[in-house]
Amino acid sequence: MTTLLYDGSFNGLLTAIFIAFEYKMYDCSIDTKERYQATMFDSPETVMTDKLKAQRVWEGLCKKVSNHARREFYYAFLSGLPGIEDTLLAYVRYAFQNNSTIEKNFANSVVNMVSQTAHSVHREKHRMEAFVRFIRLQDDLYCAFISPDFNVLPLVASHFQDRYADQHWLIYDRDRDYGIHHDPQTRLVSDVIIEKSTADTSLSTTVHEEEVAYQTLWRSYFDHVNIQERRNIKLHLRHVPKRYWADLTEKTAGV
Amino acid sequence: MQWDPIQEKLEILAEAARYDVSCSSSGSKRANKSNGLGNSTGVGICHSYTEDGRCVSLLKILLTNHCIYDCAYCISRRSNDIPRAGFTVDEVVSLTINFYRRNYIEGLFLSSGIFKDADLTMERLVRVAKRLRTAERFNGYIHLKTIPGCSEELTHEAALYADRLSVNIELPTETSLKTLAPEKSHVDIMKPMAFVSENIRALASDKKIIKSTPNFAPAGQSTQMVVGASPENDLQVMSIADSLYKNYQLKRVYYSGYVPISNDNRLPVLGTPVPVIRENRLYQADWLTRFYQFSVKELVDPKNPNLDLDIDPKLSWALRNLDQFPVDVNTAPYEMILRVPGIGLNSAKKIVAARNFQKLGWEHLRKIGVAFNRAKHFVICQSSAMPKEVDARKLRAHILTQSKFGTSFSSQTSLFQ
Ligand code: SF4
C-alpha cells in the first residue's frame, strides 16, 4: 500500500487527495510527514504541496456539497486526529462518485465521522472563545496562553478580531507552538512564534500595574456568585473540565 | 483606584445578585462599528461556570442592595440585618470594561435594590448603560432590570441602550405575592413588561417599512419566577409562563428554586433543600414547549398537576401515551420523531435527512447519536421486531434502573434528549 505524506497544511492534504485521484490510487493512505511511521507493507511517497491542485479538489467539492459541508470538512481537518486524512479522502471519493449530494447521509460512516469530528472541533472553538483569559501587560498588549484539544486558532481569529478591534492582543497555542497576534492600527491578525526562552519568564515581570488587582476582583466575583446550597461539582466539572483550569484566572490561586 | 473597598462592595453586591438566575447573553446582534470595544453576535458565550454548575456569562451585580421594600424571600429586604453597599456609576463602568477586555464576560447584567424610589433607581441604572454605550463605545451585552413602578420614559430610554430588559414576576400568583411581598403587585410588575413588549412589536412592524429603526431591547425581555417559596403547583407555574410567552413575547422565563435565606414563618425553614430537581424539570418542560412542539396541557393537567420528579417530562408523557408508540423512524413525521424519548432535536433532524438515502436500522440510529437504550422501547425500524415491553409501569421501572441520568441538574441546558 502507498502512503502519501504531506506537510500538515490544508492545501497539502488537498494536494494529496488530488494525487490519489490522478493516479487512481484506490488503496492508499494519507498521513503527515511528522506523524508517519513506516511499516513493512507500506511504501511512503512525499507529496509537494501545490496550490493549484489543491484548488481543483476544493472547487470540485464545491460542486458536490454545500458551503456548510465544506466548512465541516475543514473543521474535521483541523482536528488533526490520527487517521482523519483517510476519512476525508473517503469523503471526497464518496461525494465525487454520486450525482446527488451525500452530505446529509448521516447513516454513512464517513459522512457521520466527518460531521461528528467537525462538531467536536466546533465545540472546542466555542470553548476557546469562552476560556481565553487575557493578561494585560505593561505595554498594553493583552496576552493569553491556551492548550486547546484541536488546532482552533484559525477558527477563533475573526471572533477576537471583531470583538477587540481597538486592542492589541496575542493568543498563543502552547501545544502547537504558534500564536495569533492582532494589531489595532492595521486591524490585521498574523501568525507568530515566540522563542521558547522568552515566553514564560518575561511575562510575569511586565504585567500592567492594574492587572493583579483586576484578577483578584474577578476571582472574588467568581467565588461570591456561587451559591453554596446548590453546589454541584459534577456539573461544574462537565462544563469546565480540569484540563483547562491552569489557564483560567478564576480557577487559579493568583500571583 | 482604591482596590479594597471595591472588592468588598463587589463581594456584597455579587452575592446579592446571585439569586437572579438569568445569565443569557444571546439573542442580540450588535456589530462593533467604529472600531470600538466589543460586539454581540447573537450566540451568547458562557465564560465560566461556578461550582454550583451555573453559567457565568455576564458581570451580574446590584448597583446597591439598599432597599426600601421588604419582600420576605429576598436577601436584600430592608428588615434583613446584612452589610449594605453601593457602587458609583464610574465603578460599575470600569469593572465592566476591564473584565470585558480580559475576556472574562460578555457584558453586564445590572439590577438594584430600590434605594429611594423607582424612578431614581432606574435613572441610575440607565446612566450606567448610557455611559457604556456612548463614552466607552461599548458594544457588548447589557441586561438591565426594569424597576417596577418607574416611568415609561425611563423604561424607554433603558431599552435604547440595553440589549435585554427584564422585570421579575417573582411569585406565580397574586395571592403569594400579597403574602410574601405585600408592597408589590403584579400590576406594577406587568406594566413595564407590557410597555416594552408593545414597543418591540410596534418596532417590528415599522421595520417592514423603514430600513433603519432604532435598537430597542434587541434581545427582548425575560422574567423570573421563584418556585418552592409558595404553594403553587407546576400546572400553575407553567400556565403562567405559557401566557407570558404568548402575551408578552418573552424570550425566556427563568425558574429559580427557592434557597432558604430567612426564618420568616411564611417561608420554608432554613436548611430546607433547594428544590433543584423540580427546577430542572420545569426547565425541561419549558424546553419541550418551546422547541419540541409540546403544549403545556400535554405535560401537566388537573389530574397530574406536578411534573414527575423521577423521570423527565418527555419520558413521562410517552409513558402516559403508549398508544402513540412505537414510532417508525423510517416513515413517521418529524414532529412525532421529536417526541421519542432518547431522540433530541439534532438526532431528529439527522434521522429525517438520512432516511432519504436508505432505510434506517438500529446501527444507523446509534451512529446518528440517538440515546439508544432509551429510544429502543419507543421506535421500530428496519432491523427491529416490535418492542417487547408495553406495560408503562414496568417500562418506567426498567428505564429508571438503567438510567445514568438524574444526579446532575442544570438550569440552563436540557439534560434529556
Ligand atoms: S424590591 Fe427587590 S431588592 Fe427590594 S426587597 Fe423586594 S425583591 Fe429584594
TrEMBL record, chain A:
It holds the Pfam family DUF4130. Residues 83-250 form the DUF4130 domain. NCBIfam families: SAM_7_link_chp (TIGR03915). This is DNA metabolism protein.
From TrEMBL, chain B:
Its cofactor is [4Fe-4S] cluster. SUPFAM superfamilies: Radical SAM enzymes, RuvA domain 2-like. CDD domains: Radical_SAM. The keyword NAD does not apply. Keywords: Iron, Iron-sulfur, Metal-binding, S-adenosyl-L-methionine. InterPro entries: Aldolase_TIM (IPR013785), DNA_rSAM_put (IPR023874), Endo/Exo/Phosphatase_dom_1 (IPR051675), rSAM (IPR007197), rSAM_sf (IPR058240), RuvA_2-like (IPR010994). One of its GO terms (molecular function) is iron-sulfur cluster binding. This is Putative DNA modification/repair radical SAM protein.
